[in-house]
Amino acid sequence: MTIEQRIARAEEALKEQFARIEAIEEAGTRRILKAFQEHQVAYRHFAPTTGYGYDDVGRDTLERIFADLFGTEAAIVRPSIASGTHAISLCLFGLTLPGDHILSATGMPYDTLENIIGWGAGEAPVGSLKEMGITYGQVELKDGRIDIDAVDRAITPNTKLVIAQRSRGYDWRPSLMPEDFAELAEMLHRKHPGVRLMVDNCYGEFVCEKEPSHYGADVCVGSLIKNPGGGIAPTGGYIVGTQEAVTRISYRLTAPGIGLEVGSYAASYQPFYQGLFMAPHTVAQAIKTACLAARVFEDLGMVTTPASTEPRADIIQAIQMKTPERLVAFCQGIQMASPIDSMALPEPWAMPGYNDPVVMAAGTFVSGASVELSADAPMREPFTAYLQGGLTYAHGRIALGQALQRMVDTGALTLE
């Protein structure tokens, strides 16, 4: 059977799954369209500003739209937020004081947060929460779900913030649905009213019809070069939540007493508005690509999570390649099928902020944009590839075929 025949067979098996994805896309588009209309978005909202940015109508309206879409009281949506990690860091520093304790309800956070928290024994990294006297603990997931009782027991008198990561990151565990945070939020608000819940929502926006903030999360945070930027936003991040929490975080963004009142952007806001409008469609394209990849590799006898027909909580598809040769060849094939830097062949390297060498395919229009088709992985057993993104399903389909061909050409994979 040829590679094309394998892909066509996988597509045929996914018709019902694709229909579900398209229904969520339409629901998300309706919500965004309604928000744009209610806030009377017009061409004037795209105008750039300079200097302090006082009374920036484009910035302020975009933030109100994000708050509405996520069901929260307030939002920070800024091009000056450099990444999802930067947005999370603002929250961690903004919502804690020296002597406070942070508890993770989903085990070890994403690798790039370790230096921010100051995780581990030894001297605290310069500038970390640990250096400031803020302590950290974590509760592991139980059977892939938040262990509510264990979180309750782990909360100390000094605990002020419970954090949770929706996406799997580089872990072999299920990503969490928005409703999976409901019980945790209810328990915290009822038994520990001084403790806030912050959810790292990266990779999860618009995958479902609602977000964790609709189920009680006090703060949700993410990157605009992932899902909510729709593949158009050139940079930025967002934070949504209660007015009190967002105000505290905004004082870390700028300065105490100034907060959200300043912050100009000398380029047009159009890509942020247009990217948000495109987000449900772009996310749907990425999820279809992920489902197809899962089905093709399942047919080849490999283990995937989520499985091709399972409900989706984020855009990430994990595939156990089992050997480093397969992993590297797969990522190289994705890179070779990219519109940008297709001539480059990624090799594992010591990427800043990560504990293991990382191989990364990312031939994207916006540097590092995870909502565009990319694949990356730490070089550790069982050599799991993490595929995400895809501005169009057609490109995802083509790239998957080229990745399989690269695996065959290098001898990493044999097709019967």
Please render the helix and strand layout as text.
Blueprint: H1 3-13, H2 15-38, H3 57-69, E1 74-78, H4 84-94, E2 101-104, H5 114-117, E3 135-138, H6 148-154, E4 159-165, H7 182-191, E5 196-200, E6 219-223, E7 237-241, H8 243-253, H9 270-299, E8 304-305, E9 317-320, H10 324-336, E10 358-361, E11 374-378, E12 384-388, H11 393-409
Parallel strand pairs: 2-3, 2-4, 4-5, 5-6
Antiparallel strand pairs: 1-7, 6-7, 8-9, 9-12, 10-11, 11-12
Helix pairs in contact: 1-9, 2-9, 4-8, 9-11, 10-11
The ordered string of helix (H) and strand (E) elements is HHHEHEHEHEHEEEHHEEHEEEH
Question: What's the β-strand tally?
Answer: 12
Distance from first to last alpha carbon:
7 Å
Helical content band: 25-40%
Classification by helices and strands: alpha/beta
Taken from the alpha-carbon principal axes, the silhouette is globular
Mean pLDDT: 96
Q: Uncertain runs with pLDDT below 50, 5 residues or more?
A: none
Q: Can you summarize the main beta sheet?
A: 7 strands, mixed
Our Rg estimate from Cα atoms comes to 21 Å
Instruction: Count helical runs.
Output: 11
Strand sequence of the main sheet, in spatial order?
Answer: 1-7-6-5-4-2-3
What fraction of residues sit in β-strands? Answer: 5-15%
